[in-house]
Amino acid sequence: MSIRIALLFVVIAVLCSAAFTLGGTAAARQVDTSGIPPEHPVSLALRSRQDLGLSDEQVTKLSQIRDAMVAEFAPLRDQAQSLQRQMQELQQSGSNDQDAAKKLKQAGDELGNKMRPMFDRYAQAVAALLSPEQREKLMKLSELQNQKSNGNQFVLGFVMESRERLGITPRQFTKLQYLQADFIRAFAPLREQMELLQMEVQEKFGNAGKEPTPEYQERGKNLQQKVMELQAQFSERALKEVLEPKQRTELEELLGGKHHPGQS
């Protein structure tokens, strides 16, 4: 099973399942304070235990796998958060320091290379616990999850990542950077609310090993919706204010022909 790790420069979409990075959405059906991607098989299997028909023994072993993964992942998550803060500070400063951005991207790539083998190893441990029928069901659920994530992709971030293939000019790139900096400033209050919610959930539920209540899950979903709306707003501006018609057509092809904000 492959694990999708979304990146915008160095922003790694594994900070927490209710939080959003600039490169995309780490969407989840519940608030998770561990930072484990919600599409990882261990998270997806535990979340879909009834659909998969998991036994109590399987749930217990999957929980143990998840706990071990959380412990191993924690220092990598801290590094990702540090890189994210550095990139945000660089973008908010308005600096066009390409060398600094390149170094941060390189550090992010190296960190991603450390994460992938770990994610794959734990995915294999999950697969070994399941029956062939359960593995098949989990793979189908994973495909649906990835389709949903791809449909919610942050177009502005994808344009920045794909600027060479889209033929983005230096002038267009500068405009995109300004848009990105505006997005970061607009996103800051929502990110603060997410972090406060994450701390509250950890204090009330995470430390006791309990699932968040529906009320807290709904609060996370509401914040998620607000960020999706903000992403759509800035993506539409990028499409209308920056890209040429030919570039918009090429972007749609790169995104698989899906409809995205700003396209009719």
Q: What is the gist of this entry?
A:
The protein is mainly α and 264 residues long. It has ten helices and four strands, in the order ββββαααααααααα.
What does this protein look like?
The protein is mainly alpha-helical and 264 residues long. It has one domain. The protein has helices at residues 41-47, 49-52, 56-92, 98-129, 132-151, 155-161, 163-166, 170-204, 214-241, 245-254, and strands at residues 7-8, 11-12, 20-21, 24-25. A two-stranded antiparallel sheet has the order 1-2. Strands 3-4 form a two-stranded antiparallel sheet. Helix 8 packs antiparallel against helix 9 (214-241). The longest helix has 37 residues, at 56-92. 33% of the residues are buried. The model is unreliable at 1-31 (pLDDT under 50).
Q: Which spans have pLDDT < 50 for at least 5 consecutive residues?
A: 1-31
The residue-averaged pLDDT reads 75
Terminal residue distance: 35 Å
Strand content: under 5%
- How do the strands of the widest beta sheet line up side by side? 1-2
Helix content: 55-70%
User: Quick one: overall form?
Assistant: globular
Report the major sheet: 2 strands, antiparallel
- Tally of individual helices: 10
**Which series of helices and strands comes N to C?**
EEEEHHHHHHHHHH
- Would you tell me the structural class of the helices and strands? mainly alpha
Q: How many discrete structural domains?
A: 1
* Rg result: 19 Å
Strand count: 4
